[in-house]
């Protein structure tokens, strides 16, 4: 697509033309920008027929030509970059962004995501595209509390703490929506409201019977902050029930709290299929059929449904289940949002109408992704100051994540342009060293994983790793290729993106050829994982030749929701480990682009491990990239292998195959640096590694950021946004939503690594903590001051954290985060830190869910982690002041 100038002019011309043809002499009120958005929305809705109204209440709202209303799809994703709509800046996964503890950075990231989303929307409209993923209503952030590390979607959140989640989420929302007084750049949608964090396998059926204390102390504060402070204009209700009512039909959540207590004026969208769950066989059995479900959702305040169930509203009105007026309330909210996005106004009035595709993945945006990746990395162990590395000549890089695209992306991801793999990042950061790569292990025994570059060469006898690639500007491999190159591995995500500038995104084909060798003789099933696109009417063709014979072919037509599917493509038998000729042909066609392919197999574990051990023996140091994958942890996934089920984890330790790899390499005696790449906490014992970095799913710049950290160019400054437990025995049952003995606030055991923790290549010292008062009247502010000094030899960032210990009761948290600041310090430099704690930070929630600043003895602790024990100061609060809900 090309960059438009005044991208909305065509839409407005159609709008005015429609009214001109209908004989109306005067511009309708909804097109008058001098009127208020509510008045304009009311005028537009009242011009619609019942059938037209019904169609506008699902996420794929169609055009109403007679009124000049364009089609609009409410579903767009921007969790850590604009997702599923072509190339965009890919930031670290949300849990990695939380590890930065950097609110200004989060605001900048939200600004970039919304800027790129607006540019993509402008370009799409210019080309007549009104599709899913190209809209301006961004279904992010996910601010559910990551209460249990087994939850596969925890990677999408900002961790386990309600205060940190609230601060980071609110900063992101403000960046997403912009600060123009008249128009949103895009609209943010905090989700999933509320009390939702797994298990994935029962999310469509389970009821959460949560205490009033836990509801208001843990599960609601972040939503309150993003609505009241961040002024998010949309919110997404969850799948589960709460107190017996589906969240999307909850009087408590949607009427009493959201619109009553918090005064929310925006619109509510359901999670996809959540209204279906009201009446379907595997759902909540709350409604008899779709008409009852639709009426219940709208009456409770769910304004638009992701899915088709709300199409039953027309018959629901005719049968008296709901009135047309009740529908109008929701419709006016939906169209007020579209008006405030500027979709019915002259682009000359719009500050965002001139944003073009030049904004997408611009140099400045890429630089911000690198900064975010650098700040997200957490150093957890550094025995004998092994890091940073100096003077190493031979580096062994091992592990299933060393060359994994998935491990950079996470889920709900943007599509990065030419992302470097971690092994390539190390080669670039250590140009004087010999870097030897060995995959070493699968994630889990028997699980498919990408065929590593070490097993493929573009020709017999070549030392170059990878396959010869020919790209064609058509789906039939006809004519001359428009691009030839060597692809190190077949592991590509081209969802709505061009494989290369000269290759068209909607119809192309690729031929890969060269040799392939197996790590051991035996039978191998080759699998092509194809990224599908909705609603692309996509065609995929995939064929494999081995030793000159065609051994497998596969074709598919895909028109379902965007997804990645894994399909057996060919069976190969190796009598030996020598190179064999291989040719692979991939054909792709789609109406709205899409595409992507990963060639995988399930090799035997022993020879992979042996190759890694041999590489380690010849190296000065070993860097092991291990952890998890969004192919294992994520949203409602059809996977069940040891340690994983349905997208969730059943254990929190590193999978056994990877653990055996680390132990075998450690036995060589070579220094072992482990880089974890994952979306949730992993219990890795201290004895398994000499140095340990947590890198999360770090985004497009992850390889560079990790390598710079190992080399010392980046001083690690990330801090853990969740507790790393020692083993699963320290956790309550996964489906128990009580906060007792969960997260650092209530956990009574000894964690493996504490919330807020993280090391640096320098050291920091805190001066005495001083308070503005030792006695407060309830409702007054408290100022906390402390000095932080860099006592080491290199510059670094410290994250100063303030924790409050309240009077201890049977339900009170042990202590809780109430403030933090990131500060950069040169060697020997000191800076005073000042924190103002307001009544809400100083308040507690009682058993009835009432939040108040209450009388009692309190203690303040300041330090670089939640386990700080020395720097503290005490104060008293007199009286009691209840705070607004």
Automatic annotation (TrEMBL):
Record-level GO BP terms: arabinan catabolic process; xylan catabolic process
All residue ranges annotated as the PA14 domain in the record: 462-616
InterPro entries per record: BXL, Fn3-like, GH, Glyco_hydro_3_C, Glyco_hydro_3_C_sf, Glyco_hydro_3_N, Glyco_hydro_3_N_sf, Ig-like_fold
Keywords: Hydrolase, Signal
Sequence intervals crossing the membrane: none
SUPFAM superfamilies recorded: (Trans)glycosidases (SSF51445), Anthrax protective antigen (SSF56988), Beta-D-glucan exohydrolase, C-terminal domain (SSF52279)
MF (Gene Ontology): alpha-L-arabinofuranosidase activity; xylan 1,4-beta-xylosidase activity
Record-given protein name: Glycoside hydrolase family 3 domain protein
